[in-house]
Design brief:
Length: 437
């Protein structure tokens, strides 16, 4: 699903973080164990009137001297302009309008984006007159809120969702394969895109009339149609915020959200970094298919074992995505780039693979015969039957007598049995256990 993206901007201390927490409420979809993402809550999911969105708090950089603050604020605004469907510009109703607000306001106004001004800290109706000076920003009627008291939040959310693009859920065709190249700066993502697009094997297509064509690249390879998500960010090199890890992570996470298949690009010389682990964890938690591409393979001194050693190390660090195939490429020489495209096809097929209930239950029954489900305090787990309820990623519902007996290790065992028969290379498999009398 494509969620709309809401970015919160504003100078320090106007109440952005407070508002962020109010907007996303308790519905934090990023699971607690996504490494590194939750500690610093910059990114969370919200829902209002059945519309799903992602809120990004662009603030949170350490306030330093005036000059640095201004630079950071410009980065925030640029990032928001690039990424957001709706920009929420928070101003401080107690302090009033100042020159920094004006400067942010100018940038936002010029962008032509949907901007909502939220005049914060209006904790009582007595303060309402404070709001008038903010009309001067030329960004329409400011919404009156108090993030701390939770006042005006419902109206604000109404206004936010009003501005979501209509086609947010349907702006990609079903048969389009959506691929995100993810990985740290300098691992070779842009070179890879250029290599793929520079070759005659692909036909680059433009889809006119979509808002997405500016940032995504469409092309055909073989019988398939692809879109590489957010290629503008890769091809237009080094926008001013790209050097800030926080922003490159946000940018990557939003690309993951919009994709089906993530190609995690790793620099062979550097190996898997902590940021790679975070991003892979996020892709996995969100049920995305994953391919690991070890790039700059041309630079590696190799003997016959080198790629096996690399694989072993990657499996050790990224143990939670053992299903992800690993491919060694060079974006520079084009080595195995064709193979990568073929692999994307294979993984896409697996991501969409549906196995019949009959076959699934044959596998499950056989698995149960070989290895009985766990028992506890005289209760033995019993599996009645299973069925695949969805694809992208494949998800199985299994009916059992005692849900709580389905331990992680047994689920893993079932998963392996299914993979032994069907591979499902590149795609996560999800299970839901339902209790049946
Ligand atoms: P940020 O730097 O923009 O993220 O601002 P914070 O959310 O950290 O808030 C800065 C300060 O303003 C904190 O002391 C908050 O308690 C306070 N604050 C935030 N929202 C409100 C509000 O609605 N009313 C009042 N009176 N204070 C607020
Ligand atoms: P990005 O930041 O991930 O988009 O990385 P770039 O595509 O800008 O690449 C960063 C640097 O690595 C550039 O100097 C590239 O020429 C170089 N590079 C990218 N891919 C390869 C490769 O496969 N082999 C070698 N030797 N250099 C590469």
């Amino acid at each position: 699903m494509n969620r709309a993206i809401v970015c919160i901007v504003g100078r320090p201390n106007v109440g952005k973080s407070t508002l962020f927490n109010k907007l996303v409420g308790k519905r934090i979809a990023i699971t607690e164990d996504t490494p590194g993402v939750t500690r610093d809550r910059i990114y969370a999911e919200g829902e209002w009137l059945g519309k799903y969105f992602t809120v990004i708090d662009t603030g949170g950089l350490e306030p330093e001297n005036e000059e640095i603050i201004m630079k950071n604020i410009k980065r925030q605004a640029e990032m928001a302009i690039d990424t957001a469907d709706v920009i929420l510009f928070v101003v401080d109703g107690l302090e009033g309008l100042n020159s920094t607000d004006r400067e942010i306001g100018n940038m936002l106004r010029k962008s032509g984006k949907n901007v909502i001004v939220a005049c914060n800290k209006i904790d009582t109706p007595n303060f309402k007159n404070q709001v008038y000076e903010f009309y001067e920003l030329g960004l329409g009627e400011p919404m009156i809120i108090s993030g701390e008291q939770g006042l005006g939040i419902g109206d604000l959310l109404d206004e936010i969702v009003k501005h979501f693009p209509e086609d947010k859920d349907t702006d990609y065709d079903e048969d389009l394969i959506r691929v995100a190249l993810i990985g740290k700066p300098n691992v070779g993502k842009s070179s890879l895109i250029n290599n793929i697009l520079g070759e005659e094997r692909v036909i680059v297509t433009n889809i006119p009339g979509t808002t997405r064509d500016a940032i995504d690249t469409y092309f055909n390879f073989g019988d398939n149609r692809y879109v590489f998500i957010d290629t503008a960010g890769l091809r237009r090199k080094r926008s001013i915020y790209e050097d800030v890890e926080r922003y490159s992570v946000i940018r990557t996470l939003t690309a993951v959200d919009r994709s089906d298949i993530c190609v995690l690009v790793i620099d062979a010389a550097e190996g898997v970094t902590e940021q790679d682990t975070k991003i892979a964890g996020y892709a996995h938690d969100n049920g995305k298919a994953i391919i690991i591409a070890v790039n700059k393979w041309d630079l590696v001194k190799k003997d016959s074992n080198t790629h096996l050693e690399f694989e072993k190390e990657i499996r050790r660090v990224l143990g939670f995505i053992t299903y992800a195939p690993i491919i060694f490429i060079s974006a520079l020489t084009g080595q195995r780039v064709d193979k990568l495209l073929e692999l994307i096809n294979v993984v896409n097929n697996n991501y969409n693979l549906r196995i019949s209930t009959g076959v699934l239950n044959d596998i499950v029954n056989e698995a149960v015969l070989m290895n009985q489900p766990p028992s506890d305090k005289g209760k033995r787990a019993k599996i009645y039957y299973g069925t695949q309820v969805s694809v992208r990623p494949p998800k199985f519902v299994i009916f059992v007598n005692y849900k709580e007996l389905m331990h992680f290790s047994y689920v893993r065992y079932l998963e392996n049995q299914i993979r032994n028969h069907f591979g499902f290379v590149g795609t996560p498999i999800q299970f839901e256990f339902r209790q049946k009398g």
